[in-house]
Amino acid sequence: MSEQKKAMNRALPGLLVAGSLAGVVAVTVGVLQLAPRVEGGPSGVLAGAAEPRQAENGEQPTPIEIQNAGAFMLSPTVGPGGKDVPLTPAKLEAPPPLAAVPTVAPIPPAKKAAKKARPTRIKIPKIKVNAPIAGVTLDAKGALGVPPLTKPNLTGWYRNSPIPGGIGPSIINGHVNTRKGPAVFNRLAELSKGDPIYVYRSDGKVTRFTVSGIEQVSKSTFPTNRVYGNTTDAQLRLVTCGGVYNKSAHHYADNVIVYATLSKKKG
Fold first, then answer.
1. Distance CA 235, CA 79 (A)
2. Which of 179, 186, 197, 242 is deepest in the core (most CB within 10 A)?
């Protein structure tokens, strides 16, 4: 019995070592069975890994060489973002990410500036005026320009004055006559309080003004403030020449001015 007991004592360490190894193997196998398989490759084989060459004639098996392993290695700064969010490696066959949604709205295309409306025609039934309107500006001396004498039926709208129907005094002038005969405003002095004047615009609107007054003044004492001064409503001023014609100076001594107030606007 003593010899058998001694033999058992000598074998016990080996048995303990063998049992420990068997336990490690069992645990390892269990962990591997619980681990998820890597997608994108053969079952149980890492995607992109080469098959190991089987050992022959006692040769040692060839170590597995992992290809494209770098595809699973991401920079620490790459990830979905957010506090405490772990970085997730992309699959090899995954499509490229979508473009990031811009945080600043794109600048809309510039819109073409709306074309400023302008007066196109004036009609004064009482004196049978039906004339087109062109634009005029100030000359180098600061005097208001006039339509060319070659177009006696053309009137001129001062471009820096409000459009007829807008707040303020809109200025329209015209010749009283030319060397060839009467011009567009030849009968302007015949207008009186209450007479209607119609001004048509490029935006389709028609403005109706009612004469509120008329005067003839010397050009040397032209009432600039009364004609051009700001008003709180829509006004119209018609200006032409009048009085005595000075043949040596080739101009009239006076101006005839019609004052009118907006009474209706259509369109």
1. 69
2. 197
